[in-house]
Amino acid sequence: MSEFIFAANQSEVPENGMKLVEVDEQLVLILNVNNEFFCINDVCTHDGGTLCDGKLNGHSIACPRHGATFDVRTGAATKMPATQPTGVHDVKIEGDQILVRLKED
Ligand code: FES
Is ligand 1 within 6 A of the CB of residue 102? Predict the structure, then answer.
């Protein structure tokens, strides 16, 4: 089972914004929704687009390529053309630090 690994400081991830980080050689997105933090793969399951330039609206992130959306809490695809979820990872806060435990998928 993997460990929690430092991903970013809270101050680096703007409220209702996101930051692309590398954790254990994997690119993931840290998202801040009203100061609650989430972590998802930077991968749209429609055609492999990156989500880091997408628009975050509440708990929903939209892929900039064809507009699929995902729920950042669960990774669920919530709008076509994506139908499969993207990966989500566990997040733990310690002081100002955001730690992530990668889930294998
Ligand atoms: S690659 Fe994301 S919607 Fe097509």
Answer: no
The strands making up 60-62's β-sheet, listed across from edge to edge, are 55-57, 60-62, 69-71, 77-79
Domain boundaries, the chain: 5-101
Q: Note the pTM of the prediction, 2 decimals.
A: 0.95
Residue 89 CB–ligand 1 contact under 6 Å? no
Regarding the beta carbon of 64 and ligand 1, being less than 6 Å apart is answered: no
CATH superfamily of 5-101: Rieske [2Fe-2S] iron-sulphur domain (2.102.10.10)
pLDDT 10s digits, 47-104: 999 999 999 999 999 999 999 999 999 999 999 999 999 999 999 999 999 999 999 7
